[in-house]
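Reminder to self: tokens first, then the designed residues, so the page reads top to bottom the way the pipeline ran.
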């Protein structure tokens, strides 16, 4: 069975060409926790392969004076403000190192030149954009057709180890709920009760059992 991904756009793509390009031409960089790869209001610039650590995508709500996490890029994945980085367009979010991160990065403008170099490369660009749109649109619809509890349940089924990789605060903002609400949902889904002769028996469930 094919392993499911947090960032589902990758599941139908062959990104070996991009990995090879980053390994051959990318600049090795280390970002400490809290450093930004991209910053809101500034031109987006980079496409990077994450060799170690992980990044989070953050937006700021000025009225609430609160930051929201909108996504992650984990080790073995690519991180970019795509497609803004391809033309140096103004970033609408921050991409922040959540831990010490080692990356291989190339300029987005260089990536655009690669896409323009042949029909095959242009098709890669189209496929990436297509799959990114599907992923983002599905997440958008999920906020309306599923409760926060169901969105969390589906996330745990798809990517069960996320709680060992990210903070509860960041996961809560990803689901657009409070950490307290997330804690309550986790308790409901990971603690089940089974009746045995009129006596409730506590039963601990793994993420894969949350069906």
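Designed residues (211 positions):
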């Amino acid at each position: 069975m094919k392993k499911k991904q947090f960032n589902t756009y990758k599941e139908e793509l062959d990104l070996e060409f991009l990995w090879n390009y980053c390994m051959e031409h990318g600049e090795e960089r280390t970002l400490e926790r809290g450093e930004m790869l991209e910053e809101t209001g500034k031109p987006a610039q980079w496409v990077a392969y994450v060799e170690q650590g992980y990044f989070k995508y953050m937006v700021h709500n000025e009225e609430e004076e609160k930051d929201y996490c909108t996504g992650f890029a984990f080790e073995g994945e690519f991180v970019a403000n795509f497609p803004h980085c391809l033309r140096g367009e103004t970033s609408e979010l921050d991409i922040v190192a959540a831990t010490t991160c080692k990356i291989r990065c190339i300029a987005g403008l260089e990536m655009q030149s690669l896409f323009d170099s042949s029909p095959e490369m242009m098709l890669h660009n189209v496929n990436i954009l297509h799959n990114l749109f599907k992923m983002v649109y599905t997440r958008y619809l999920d906020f309306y057709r599923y409760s926060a509890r169901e969105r969390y349940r589906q996330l745990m089924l798809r990517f069960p180890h996320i709680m060992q990789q990210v903070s509860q605060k960041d996961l809560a903002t990803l689901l657009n709920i409070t950490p307290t609400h997330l804690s309550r949902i986790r308790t409901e889904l990971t603690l089940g009760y089974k009746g045995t002769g009129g006596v409730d028996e506590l039963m601990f469930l793994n993420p894969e059992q949350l069906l």
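The mean pLDDT is 88.
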